């Protein structure tokens, strides 16, 4: 199924049945339906620890940034993975154990390492879900930037001076640009845990 997704084919029940050389009724009996198929595809795409970026020679911040973008590229490689992104990056125990071990090397406590990783994943999944909703709204003639513009023009400027001072542009709402901003704030918070402990020594 992963090969079908990587090759750009629609991962339908019929296509999977053809790929596996089984009757589609048999596939339904074992998997259950289209939604279960998509979830299984997402879970199957979850990486093993050896596929994560190498941390040697990098700071904790640099490595976590690479991990976040690694997941981003993995999930955006196929629309089915976006729908069930939590299944792709919700860490398997061996994956979580690997990441916690790396962060411990950087100076995190085991618990802080685990919390930091889950925080990073929550931000990524939340952003992707927001992106999915935004794309759905764009199809209907909306989207975050258009909705922002409509709301701004419908209100007196004097009421929204602080928002207008942001001077938002379409580029600020571009998906990867916005994600990089969210990621930077997330990493600021995570790495501040290291700085705080260093100051207490």
User: Biggest β-sheet: count, sense, barrel?
Assistant: none
CATH class of the largest domain: Mainly Alpha
Mean of the pLDDT scores? 81
The CATH topology assignment of the largest domain is Tetracycline Repressor, domain 2
CATH-level-2 architecture of the largest domain: Orthogonal Bundle
Number of helices: 12
Q: What is the count of distinct domains?
A: 2
Order of helices and strands: HHHHHHHHHHHH
Oligomer: single chain
Polypeptide structure, described:
The protein is mostly helical. The chain folds into 2 domains: 1-44, no CATH class; 48-200, Orthogonal Bundle (Tetracycline Repressor, domain 2). 71% of the residues lie in helices and 0% in strands. The chain has helices at residues 2-6, 13-20, 24-31, 34-44, 60-76, 79-83, 85-89, 93-106, 110-139, 144-153, 161-164, 175-200. Helix 9 (110-139) runs antiparallel to helix 12. It is flat and about 65 Å long.
Give me a quick take on this structure.
With 201 residues, the chain is mostly helical.
Layout of helices and strands, plus pairs?
Layout: H1 2-6, H2 13-20, H3 24-31, H4 34-44, H5 60-76, H6 79-83, H7 85-89, H8 93-106, H9 110-139, H10 144-153, H11 161-164, H12 175-200
